[in-house]
Design a protein that fits this description.
The chain is of the alpha+beta class. It contains 19 helices and 10 strands.
Length: 589
């Protein structure tokens, strides 16, 4: 990932929390405004309701007092006698025993205090307030005292302590604020959690969508565009710093034939199997990607071509244990061809690096597949005079099909080993060795679709395939002094019971070299991985070889070969000697 991309992601990550904070801030502001408005409205309505209730009670008290104690004549100054005034003053004073009523008096139309809870104020004419003047004019602010029986208007004034009333209103205001703020806090926390969960889910979905554009849907590896972009970034970084980058272009062998024979579902299964192994190789310094329909790309930083060769060797060892099976098919092997190149060793740019790896891959595929080629290790042209026709034929086999060449080398080893067990002379051993190397030379004329088909051949296809022995004989027949070699090439598929091909010879009618080649060829075929079948264990191959004695193979030769394998310390071991899974028993003393 580039620094610019990392910064872009950091910027997006920074914007997301800022957006969440902005939403929460707006919400809290709205909650604050709502709470303030709610408190103000509640306070106004509560104050009005409380005052109205208090006024209603006071009006009732005044009405009760007036109706019970006052006579219209009492409201005329000088009419009430001293005893009447003292009695009224006493009753007004009794009203103030309520802690909240501070003072009560009755005033005439001229504002003179006629009766009062405080007798000392009787006769006073305090300055009239607007409320008093409104009351005297018939619109009192607290209550209206009007009576048709009153000849002169008068006002009964009552002063109440407002502290308890205000305290009650203030307590309600505080309760409202606490409830609103508490609810707002809980709601803010809930919204924060909801927003954060939603944002995290959106972030994950965005990351998944972004990653999906960079991933191959079948294998889950990086796709072509993503790995090329990543490779370009790595190369650009390498221009600023010293280092190296190695790439391995991996191609699945016979993939088209596999698809055509077993279907695309089978091909997908093989691709996923290879992808799983490559994904296991991926790490901080290694990228794995699907580069093409049947191609994968490994990119490793701080790696040379040699480093990649070691990694690819490990990968091919793991592939040796990977098999697939479809329907009633044999366990099919999975092999790959690999082209390796590195920068700056082999190239100076991304395009050149990929081109060099592609050329190396084509050479690996051109040699028959299941091979590794590096740009630095391409096959050199021979410049010696010792190159002869037989060497050219061996190279032709290798170029046509790498499996055929390995198989031919194994057949030569087994045939020579069997000839040694029979005590044949050195010249015959040399002839047998060359015959073993060339016994399948005719396969260079067999179509790849048959030679590498990942399933058993049909009867018609097998008829075509059988012609490789005749073609091989035709290829070498004009070379001098090769009669014995030709016999090994032409007759190594004859059977002891006469049911072989092409001539259908039986028993000792088959030349000895052909019978020896038949044993060696059968053992190699069973212990070598082939396009349509995985190699058999050595013990199983020996058992089947013994079962074929007297029918397909000459019994005496089979017995000698098996005895040699089980007793000779130098017995040839099938496959790579570094991966031997079977050793012969020691020769009896």
């Amino acid at each position: 990932m580039t620094l610019a991309r990392e910064r872009g992601q950091d910027a997006r990550s920074a914007r997301r929390p800022m957006l969440l904070a902005l939403v929460l801030a707006i919400f809290l502001v709205l909650v604050g405004i709502t709470a303030s408005a709610l408190v103000a409205i509640t306070s106004a309505h509560l104050s009005t309701a409380t005052l109205n209730a208090t006024i209603s009670r006071d009006a009732s008290l005044v009405e009760l007092f007036v109706n019970s104690n006052l006579h219209p004549d009492d409201l005329v100054p000088g009419r009430a006698d001293a005893a009447q005034r003292a009695q009224l003053d006493s009753k007004l004073a009794a009203l103030t025993r309520n802690d909240q009523i501070l003072r009560v008096d009755v005033r005439g139309a001229n504002g003179e205090v006629l009766f009062a809870s405080d007798p000392a104020t009787v006769g006073d004419r305090p300055a009239q307030s607007q409320g008093m003047r409104d009351a005297l004019s018939g619109t009192p602010s607290a209550a209206i005292l009007a009576s048709s029986n009153l000849r002169d208007p008068a006002v009964m004034a009552l002063w109440r302590d407002a502290a308890p009333l205000l305290a009650s209103v203030a307590q309600v205001q505080r309760d409202v604020v606490i409830v609103v703020l508490g609810a707002a806090t809980v709601l803010a926390v809930i919204l924060f959690l909801v927003f954060r969960a939603a944002q995290l889910r959106i972030n994950r979905q965005q990351a998944q969508l972004l990653e999906a554009t960079r991933r191959d849907p079948l294998t889950g590896l990086l796709n072509h565009g993503a790995v090329v972009a990543s490779l370009a970034e790595l190369v650009e970084g390498l221009r600023r710093e010293s280092g190296s980058i190695g790439i391995a272009l991996v191609d699945v062998d016979n993939f088209q034939l596999l698809n055509e024979t077993h279907g695309h579902v089978s091909g997908d299964a093989v691709l996923r199997g290879v992808a799983d192994l490559l994904d296991g190789e991926a790490s901080g310094s290694v990228l794995a990607a699907r580069y093409g329909p049947d191609e994968f790309l490994l990119v490793e930083t701080a790696a040379s071509a040699t480093d990649l060769e070691r990694r690819v060797a490990d990968l091919r060892d793991q592939l040796a244990d990977l098999t697939v099976q479809f329907g009633d098919s044999e366990r099919l092997p999975v092999t790959v061809s690999v082209g390796i190149a590195s920068l700056p060793e082999h190239a100076g740019s991304v395009t050149e690096l990929l081109s060099q790896a592609t050329v190396a891959l084509q050479e690996a595929k051109g040699s028959g597949g299941d091979a590794v080629r590096t740009v630095a290790a391409r096959r050199a042209k021979s410049n010696t005079g010792s190159f002869d026709v037989l060497q050219g034929l061996v190279i032709a086999v290798d170029t046509k099909d790498r499996y055929t060449k390995r198989h031919s080398e194994d057949v030569a080893r087994y045939a020579v080993f069997l000839a040694e067990q029979l005590g044949l002379d050195a010249e015959t051993l040399a002839t047998i060795r060359v015959s073993g190397l060339l016994h399948d030379i005719g396969k260079i004329g067999i179509p790849d679709s048959l030679l590498r088909k990942p399933s058993k051949l049909t009867a018609q296809e097998f008829d075509i395939f059988k012609q490789h022995v005749a073609l091989g004989d035709s290829i070498v027949r004009d070379l001098p002094n090769l009669e014995a070699i030709r016999a090994g090439i032409r007759h190594h598929h004859e059977r002891w019971d006469g049911h072989g091909y092409l001539a259908g010879l039986e028993g000792e009618q088959i030349p000895l070299i052909g019978r020896i080649m038949a044993v060696a060829d059968a053992f190699s075929a069973m212990t070598t991985t082939r396009p349509y079948r995985k190699a058999l264990p050595v013990e199983e191959a020996i058992k089947r070889l013994g079962d074929a004695a007297g029918t397909q193979l000459e019994q005496g030769l089979v017995v000698a070969f098996i005895h040699g394998l089980e007793t000779a310390s130098d017995a040839p071991i099938p496959g790579d000697a570094s991966r031997r899974i079977w050793k012969p028993a020691r020769r009896a003393a």
